[in-house]
Amino acid sequence: MNILYCGDANTEDGLLISILSLLKNNAAELHIYLLTMELAPGKPISDRAAAFLDQKVKEKNSGNFVRKLDITQLFQSRPPKANLGTRFTPCCMLRLYADLVEELPERILYLDNDVVCRKSIERFYSQDMDQWEVAGVPDYYGKWFFGSSPFRHDYINSGVLLLNMKNIRRTGLFARCREMCAQKKMFMPDQSAINKLASRKKLLPRCYNEQRKLHEDTVMQHFTTSFRFIPWPRTLTVKPWQVERMHTKLRLHEYDDLLAEYERLIPGIRPGGAAKGKLQEDGQR
Question: CA distances (Å), 231 to each of 84, 215, 227, 228, 234, in order?
Fold first, then answer.
């Protein structure tokens, strides 16, 4: 299976957890690509982190690999000018440059770094995509407001996207998305552009990108910001690497074995450092 992540050095903790979850639940060979770039003040995913992740996946299967692809020049040559100052990091838009990276295969699964795999995705990955550009799950909140009609929940969340790169290159979908992001300021720019411009978009069941609450059939859980109304209205954001908050805020222990392995392995990515979530939690006390 071909897997795509995008981001800078700030995504390394999430990458470790997400990749460990793929290894735990899937027997198929994993070819993992990391699109990254350098854009001040951020730093690209480090060579050390990429090498450590590559070594880790090869422990399970020698055919597995993690490959870092720095596309700084591609991004700088076609910057999403209108959306560089939004609350969403420009690295979120790196997936829109995937069609320009010849090394990427024709079928690839894009995952945000805060997606945790809970069950095998092999059947999901191998589904028919011949006539589609992208496949994704409706956004838990956005489907009510941004769909093509009030009764058609077809606004997909971009955190889990099965991509048919052959069709995307043929139709120019990502090229048009980049142009839109360069010219028009949008809320959640890359997600908005994909939803607006994709002509062949396959809708998938919620279990493949659970954005709200763990269910028995959940295959992939995506730790997005959610709304809570009791005892008062508020938003809640908890990421997988915030282990203590996973326990206290979400009361979630489903991934404790995975998170224990993450905390044990993080020095391989960040020598001498604690897990990122541990540092954040210590600072909150």
Answer: 36, 23, 12, 8, 9
